[in-house]
Design brief:
Elements lengths: L4 E4 L14 E4 L2 E4 L17 H18 L7 E8 L5 H12 L8 E6 L9 E8 L1
Parallel strand pairs: 4-5
Antiparallel strand pairs: 1-2, 2-3, 3-6, 4-6
Helix pairs in contact: 1-2
Length: about 130
Amino acid sequence: MSETKTKIATKDAPAAIGPYSQAVRVGDFVYTSGQVALDPATGELVAGGIVEQTTRVFENLKAVLGAAGVGFADVVKTTVFLQRMTDFAAMNGVYAEYLAGDGVVAPARSTVAVAGLPKGALVEIECIAKG
């Protein structure tokens, strides 16, 4: 018996620009699509460097997770895609603010460097949450 796949969508994060969902829920798990640093109001990449972009990515993820009824404390796995691995430390500082606060069990994570990201973004992050 298979569990139903449900689309998750919110106007508080960038709209999907292709044949995919912002996130899907299957049973107790929520799988987000990768988020880049697009401002949901303008559809444009936010100004600034890796810190500003990583912050916007997490705000987009917060909106998508919230639409699914979960939050960062429910995230069990993330995948981080970086345009440049030299941005790892700066990205990691912002990441820790959202996902590794005091008393929080940080999720499992993979981080990879990639040849390119949509719209020339510096970082893309996807996650899996249980809740």
